[in-house]
Amino acid sequence: MSQEIRNLEPKQLWNKFADLNAVPRPSKKEERVIAFMKDFGKKLGLETIEDEVGNVIIKKPATSGLENRKTIVMQSHLDMVHQKNSDTVFDFDTQGIEMYVDGDWVRAKGTTLGADNGLGVATIMAILESKDIPHPAIEALFTIDEETGMTGAMGLKGGLLQGEILLNLDTEEDDEIDIGCAGGIDVTATRGYEQEDVPDDSVAYTITVKGLNGGHSGMDIHKGLGNANKIMNRLLFDGFENFGLQIAEINGGSLRNAIPRESVATVIIAGMYDEAYVFDMQEIIGDIKTEFKTTEPNLVIDIQKADLPKKVMDLGVQEGLVRALYTAHNGVYRMSADMADLVETSNNIARVIVKDGEISIGCLTRSSVETSKYDLANALRSAFELFGCEVTFSGSYPGWTPNVNSPILDVLTEIYEKQNGSKANVVACHAGLECGILGTNYPDMDMISFGPTIHGAHSPDERASISSAQKYWKFVLEILENIPVK
């Protein structure tokens, strides 16, 4: 771990972030970070609880003079998205994140950084450990599995927390105060297919789509970024329509909450079309690169001769697959009619796998309106069922309805304007914050979300602003001193 990270200001924050990033913490494999956090709380002599699903709660009494203030819940999630560049050799299960300073940014070497939500976790750890930071009574809530299902927030039972105010530290622009967020649902389509022998006089190609920005499938969905699965399907559709292309395998995308950056397919065509097919592909590749030249300047689409596969997909099923993927909506579906520039509903076609007679397509549909969420989910289900898929909905979680009359919102907006000389942007976000879920068992808790500036979350381009972290830390400290009285 580079010492330059630990020397950054505020040192309390960056040192705790460095400690945390030394611990592998993939979603659904949080055993080590849970043990790390429990050990941290116990070493401080604070009441430390692990609930039945793995969330960790650490309680710290108020400092002298603030005993009459409302108890607050400071909340962040322990897990992080694991993404790496294809040429990066890294084992997320065993290695800590390798960080470095790049101007005003902290980055990781070829992987996600874990600032989402590690900087929030580190903030809470620094305050729990502090001996000179004034604060009311704190219940620190560290949830698990936020990135792949929010099962930690869903499993948190009512009655464990007594706090009246929740500070969620999982927002990624330091001039924003979040008061609402989108809910989500996983849409998964699967089916089997018959495989055929490769015809005589066939030639095989590997098609690779890579170099895309990727990013957060909620916060970045409106940016017009390329989706590797949709771009690949466009290439396959054209090859099938014009040259009878047949698919042997597809491996596209990765996590549902990350816009897919890469896709690889193995295909065959009849040898007599070889030269014409390559010429046609180069024209289409040129067209696609021109379309994405502004948003995806590093897009690479490569086609190379390959060894012949043993089997290919049945043509009837293949036609249904490429047409269904063409039909299935990806990107913004509806903008909010109530909040300017807010995406209401969207879908990310995150994962496409075709191999050994099995098809699997994974989507994440988001919306701040439950009825709209299911409207889009049903549209996707219809597209996939029409070509014979079994479609399941899972992992549904609610959005967080904005409360513009929130008392803690008044506190934060006043402090922000005093510190910065300008008003904060009070927003709702198109991402899955845990506030909506936590509110189901704690409906009377006043909730707010904020955080330092983090760009490129869920991608290897993730980076955290050093100057923003300083601004955010100052904001946090004054908030703690101004929590309302009971």
List keywords for this structure.
single chain, 486 residues, alpha+beta, Aminopeptidase, Alpha-Beta Plaits, 2 domains, 9-stranded antiparallel beta sheet, 6-stranded mixed beta sheet, 12 helices, 23 strands
Number of helices: 12
Shape: elongated
- The CATH architecture designation of the largest domain is 3-Layer(aba) Sandwich
Could you give me the name of the CATH homologous superfamily of the largest domain?
Answer: Zn peptidases
Got a strand count?
23
Gyration radius, in Å: 24 Å
What proportion of the residues form beta strands (DSSP E)? 25-35%
- Number of structural units classed as domains: 2
| Major sheet summary line | 9 strands, antiparallel
Low-confidence stretches: none
- The end-to-end distance, rounded to whole angstroms, is 43 Å
Under the CATH scheme, which class of the largest domain? Alpha Beta
Mean pLDDT across all amino acids = 96
DSSP helix fraction: 25-40%
Q: Any idea of the CATH topology of the largest domain? A: Aminopeptidase
- Class from helix and strand fractions: alpha+beta
What does this structure look like?
This protein is an alpha+beta fold. It is 30% helix and 28% strand. The chain is built from twelve helices and 23 strands. The strands form five sheets. Strands 9, 11, 12, 13, 14, 16, 17, 18 and 19 form a nine-stranded antiparallel beta sheet that branches. A six-stranded mixed beta sheet has the order 1-2-6-3-7-21, covered by helices on one side. Strands 4-5-23-22 form a four-stranded antiparallel beta sheet. A hairpin with a 2-residue loop joins strand 17 (343-355) and strand 18. The radius of gyration is 24 Å and the shape is elongated. The mean pLDDT is 96.
